[in-house]
């Protein structure tokens, strides 16, 4: 896929990057980038989850021709250009003769994890995700992270002791949470609301429809990020032994990595 300028290389020409739709699951309003070049823009990647796109472009080296939405950075003997607004994240230039033009969401991504009681699975997911989000490549990209339950069975309680011991066994020792029930406002406060199993998913979809069907949140099964063609459920380990909590931890770690790779396809991991 490519986009070409409809005008010659004059300062008034522009590329309209329209609202992402179709094969991009989450629609995102993309910036209109004023361009002074007539070169081809080639679509590099499309993030299915966030609507992020990455374009390669042949940018002018002459300062007066640089679009005002772009800032320059140096890598070797060429200049890389990056879309920027007050809230846009800067990206590391690629080591290539082509200049990457990367468009990212205009704010940090927020995530809510939901299970039934908010003391086992969703807290495990939150604890794991928070820890991974601390890594240098993600710490400036992730905003609010929280968890809640579809039921009101444990409001105000801390996570199950087996959740905490499993997290601690993997070096996560600073996680604190008090159970709460999911709220209608959550669907506008978070970009993603993840259900641990299909029962949770149906409850969340029903609640969202009763409240504000056009709300901001994308409601998904967390196990859609299993890394395989088959979505997984995180089974409730409440009535089982410690192995169930270990399995939940391993799933949440894998799903977190896959989700972040999908949302931020151009972020290099260590």
UniProtKB/TrEMBL annotation:
Keyword Hydrolase appears in the UniProt entry: yes
Domain Phosphotyrosine protein phosphatase I: 109-262
InterPro entries per record: LMW_PTPase, Ptyr_pPase
CDD domains membership: LMWPTP
Pfam families listed in its UniProt record: LMWPc
Keywords: Cytoplasm, Hydrolase, Protein phosphatase
Segments forming a coiled coil: none
SMART domains recorded: LMWPc (SM00226)
Subcellular location: Cytoplasm
Source organism, top-level taxon: Eukaryota
Reaction(s) this enzyme catalyzes, per UniProt: a phosphate monoester + H2O = an alcohol + phosphate; O-phospho-L-tyrosyl-[protein] + H2O = L-tyrosyl-[protein] + phosphate
Gene Ontology terms, MF aspect: acid phosphatase activity; protein tyrosine phosphatase activity
Any one of the GO CC terms: cytoplasm
Keyword ATP-binding set for record: no
Family statement: Belongs to the low molecular weight phosphotyrosine protein phosphatase family.
Name of the featured protein: Low molecular weight phosphotyrosine protein phosphatase like
Taxonomic placement: Eukaryota, Fungi, Dikarya, Ascomycota, Pezizomycotina
């Amino acid at each position: 896929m490519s986009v070409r300028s409809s005008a010659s290389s004059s300062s008034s020409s522009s590329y309209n990057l329209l609202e992402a739709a179709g094969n991009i699951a989450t629609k995102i309003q993309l910036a209109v980038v004023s361009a002074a070049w007539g070169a081809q823009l080639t679509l590099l990647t499309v993030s299915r989850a966030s609507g992020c796109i990455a374009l390669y472009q042949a940018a002018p080296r002459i300062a007066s021709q640089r679009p005002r939405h772009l800032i320059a950075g140096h890598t070797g003997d060429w200049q890389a250009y990056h879309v920027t607004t007050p809230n846009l994240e800067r990206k590391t230039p690629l080591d290539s003769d082509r200049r990457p033009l990367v468009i990212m969401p205009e704010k940090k991504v927020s995530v809510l994890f939901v299970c039934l009681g908010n003391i086992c699975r969703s807290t495990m997911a939150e604890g794991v995700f928070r820890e991974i989000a601390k890594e240098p490549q993600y710490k400036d990209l992730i905003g609010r992270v929280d968890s809640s339950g579809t039921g009101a069975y444990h409001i105000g309680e801390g996570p199950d002791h087996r959740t905490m011991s499993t997290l601690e066994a993997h070096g996560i020792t600073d996680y604190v949470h008090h159970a709460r029930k999911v709220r209608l406002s959550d669907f506008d406060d978070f970009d993603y609301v993840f259900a641990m199993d299909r029962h949770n998913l149906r409850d969340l979809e029903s609640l969202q429809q009763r409240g504000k069907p056009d709300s901001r949140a994308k409601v998904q099964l967390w196990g859609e990020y299993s890394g395989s063609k088959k979505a997984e459920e995180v089974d409730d380990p409440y009535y089982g032994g410690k192995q169930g909590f270990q399995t939940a931890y391993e799933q949440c770690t894998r799903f977190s990595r896959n989700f972040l790779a999908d949302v931020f396809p151009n972020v290099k991991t260590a």
